[in-house]
Design goal:
Blueprint lengths: L5 E6 L4 H5 L1 H8 L3 E6 L9 E2 L2 H18 L5 H6 L7 E2 L2 H14 L2 H13 L8 H10 L4 H11 L2 H17 L6 E6 L2 E4 L11 H10 L2
Parallel strand pairs: 1-2
Antiparallel strand pairs: 1-5, 3-4, 5-6
């Protein structure tokens, strides 16, 4: 029995290019099942406190992402969050939240999208539990049920997920975020996103053509 096609979405919640690719994810979801894999770019020893150096580094990339993709980056992100020296960028909590939303209601991707807006538009600290709970409520999840699911995904479950994501990336030759891997008919194909970032509508057409019998 041949399994249904899947588009693997290799992402990190603190990756600006992943936010830039959000319209691609939304477009693809209308054609094929999309499965998120959090990579933990800023987790463990990679966690970073906001500093002027970090702000300067990410802003140059964010400006380019905005120009290329049309994605909006809010003043609350540029002028507040990226100047908040008490803020810590940590990918692990929002990845655990994605896993919780997926386990609870199959809403992992919806939560990823909401958290990207919370970070890049609203300038909120998405590593903090209060922000994760607010995002879950915003997409319609029960706060108590989500809080319980989130607690279950912290620690080893999210660490294992990140390890599995990185192993998967090494298997398919993906060297960064975001990466899309189309799995169909027993084969995996790493997509070249440069052809789609400026024109998200081209991805559904390509998927329909590729997946048609």
């Amino acid at each position: 029995m041949v399994s249904a096609p899947v588009l693997h979405y290799l992402y990190d919640p603190l990756c600006g290019w992943c936010y830039g690719a959000a319209p691609l994810v939304a477009a693809a979801r209308g054609i094929v099942a999309v499965r998120p894999h959090g990579g933990g770019m800023m987790s463990g020893s990679g966690r970073q406190q906001v500093t002027p150096q970090l702000r300067d580094y990410v802003m140059q990339h964010d400006r380019r992402i905005a120009a290329l993709t049309g994605q909006f980056f809010g003043d609350a992100y540029f002028d507040d969050l990226l100047r908040d020296s008490a803020a810590v960028f940590d990918s692990e909590p929002p990845i655990a939240a994605m896993l919780a939303a997926e386990r609870l209601a199959g809403r992992g991707l919806d939560l990823v999208e909401r958290l990207q807006v919370a970070h890049y538009v609203e300038g909120r600290r998405i590593a903090e539990t209060s922000t994760l709970l607010a995002a879950a409520v915003a997409i319609g999840l029960d706060p108590d049920a989500f809080a319980g699911a989130l607690a279950e995904q912290r620690g080893e479950p999210v660490h294992r997920h990140i390890r599995e994501t990185r192993h998967f990336m090494s298997q398919v030759g993906a060297d960064g975020f975001p990466s899309f891997v189309l799995e169909s008919g027993g084969t995996r194909r790493l997509l070249d996103l440069s052809a789609f970032l400026e024109c998200p509508g081209a991805l559904p057409d390509w998927l329909r053509s590729t997946l048609s019998p």
